[in-house]
Amino acid sequence: MANLRFQVVEEAFKKKPTEVITPVERPSEFFGKYVFNRAKMYKYLPASVYEKLIDVIDNGSTLDRSIADAVAAGMKQWAEENGVTHYTHWFQPLTEGTAEKHDAFIEHDGKGGMIEEFSGKLLVQQEPDASSFPNGGIRNTFEARGYSAWDPTSPVFIIDDTLCIPTIFISYTGEALDYKAPLLRALHAVNVAATEVCRYFDPAVNKVTCNLGWEQEYFLVDEGLYSARPDLMLTGRTLMGHDSAKNQQMDDHYFGAIPDRVQAFMKDLEIQALELSIPCKTRHNEVAPNQFEIAPIYEETNLAVDHNMLLMSLMKRVARKHGFRVLLHEKPFAGINGSGKHNNWSLSTDTGVLLHAPGKNAEDNLRFVTFIVETLMGVYRHNGLLKASIMSATNAHRLGANEAPPAIISSFLGKQLTELLDHIEKNDKEDLFDMAGKQKMAMDIPEIPELLIDNTDRNRTSPFAFTGNRFEFRAVGSEANCASAMIALNTAVAEALTDFKKRVDTLIAAGKEKRNAIIETIREDIKTCKPIRFDGNGYSDEWVEEAKRRGLDCETSCPIIFDNYLSEGSVKMFESMNVMNSKELEARNEVKWETYTKKIQIEARVMGDLSMNHIIPVATHYQSQLAKNVQNMRQIFPVEKAEQLTARNLKIIEEIAERTQAIETGVEELVNARKVANKIESEREKAIAYHDTVAPKMEKIRYQIDKLELIVADELWTLPKYREMLFIR
Ligand code: ADP
Ligand code: MG
């Protein structure tokens, strides 16, 4: 019987790039073609409605329900001109990805016919029958159902024949059941807190926007090879597979030439992304073979998150058109770099980025230092929570391994900024601040050298690095919804800024001059948050010891890391910033633990099945071939000669016997461990049991399988090998 593996490998080798139809227009012309953006709002809405809607979007004023009908009518007209027949409320439940339920525009016309209808009511609110979305017990079936509500700050867009309306998803009692609702609350909190602090420096500031520029890493695998790997199909990663003799040692893939088939995929993806207003800018190969990255220009965070969610689903569809599957899993292949999604984060006012070192006058520099230090304060106080916000069963494979950010959150500032903070910390002679006036301040906050702006990427091991005009949160996983990290980070910074303002105001009320009050408070905070600053090698063992001494969160078990969401400090922070209440936090943690358990459970099942149905049969088949050979040799040659000639085969026969036996025992133990864990009631304890007792057993089985892959005849091995999946174009 022909081995499917050889067939798919051969086909993959022969594949040619899929042709991409390039639009005749330039990107600037087809950008946003399928988005109801401002230009289209202007064109399709009455002037008064347009103005009210823009006011809602720009200034967060409340939506006047009376304009909803007019907005819906304009959207519908535009959509129909583009062949749209359906609409959907598009939302981000606590699973990965997005959810949508499509409804046709048609309604009965009361005269036995149909009319196309789309009213303001349908635009603004829907009740998706979504009882099977994870909700951690908030929305029990006997309770009222959840509903989705239009988010006017993220424009509607068209996918195929459907008008997609970005929405939040909440329960009737107001608890968030998604990522977007708490994200919007966190962005509001940071806007309020940062605006207040900005006004110390410039009373004209009205709004602070949070920016996010994500860098999406991913792997591509030929579709045929993918379909011959049940583990990839069902779990998103390879549960087994020996290293390829050549992988990333040569670093020859990074920034190398992009293969033709991949190039065609990227081109197609970018065109479609631009049509959806996703401002894609950068593409390149990544460190690992078959690993790539796509990054847009940064945007307002809510929009950037939506665009990332949209891009991930677009990638999956476009990849299939090109005979690929896109792997968003953080660690699809052991021993090879995993995929992350750097979240470049900054705050800005209408006048400029707050984390950009201006280097011109002392006042601006003081503002810059304030925002740097208070960001560090937020990250320091909630370093455990920030780790929890990026943690998942899949990202756990990446963190702490010797490649990606370590499983301890710390911040790299670079030499100049470190020196600057050290300088402020040490110059604490009172007389420096008693005298007001710029010159004195200029002495205290020295000129910030322009060089700082080029302070990029010097420490690749840092999970939260300052890179000139932003912080780069690098620990975020490739598959994750960026909102999770952005909720935690922005809330933490909002809390730090609020607290900062309170203390500065107290000093001012006690008679301190404003600038001196600010500097004194900053100085105190520089000292407090010092443990979070680390410019050394984040991969080293010494750092783990050092971080423990500093009191940073060093936990590595994913289910226990989730506890950070329920710590006293976290609950207080989320509640005081009006982002989430304890009920929401508890419910969400239930979902996190349950999701963790399910992921490992599925992997364990697939591991068991593949062991019994692929690996053991193939290995014993080869063993029989060898046994037959030994018998034949004994018939042909005299005893002693035969012994000598078959020694190697006998050894392999024995090794196969031992390894298959170990696999069988391993699978049995795996099943038993699952049975025990499944009986546990508490989601938290169950997840811990899966982490402690189930997951490690898979590693032991994998070890045996990978050894078998090396000795079993290549022609018999049914699963595509690493060298085939990773190097085929
Ligand atoms: P790299 O980190 O590889 O040097 P780039 O310079 O291409 O990457 O930038 C990565 C991302 O950071 C892009 O999405 C870019 O738009 C974004 N970015 C740049 N400046 C800022 C900023 N001030 N705030 C947020 N994101 C930013
Ligand atoms: Mg980067």
TrEMBL record:
GS catalytic domain span: 179-615
InterPro entries: Gln-synt_C, Gln_synt_N, Gln_synth/guanido_kin_cat_dom, Gln_synth_cat_dom, Gln_synth_gly_rich_site, GS_Type-3, GSIII_N
Domain GS beta-grasp: 85-174
Domain of life: Bacteria
A Pfam family per the record: GSIII_N
SMART domains: Gln-synt_C
Family: Belongs to the glutamine synthetase family.
Name this polypeptide is given: Glutamine synthetase type III
Source organism of this protein record: Xylanibacter caecicola
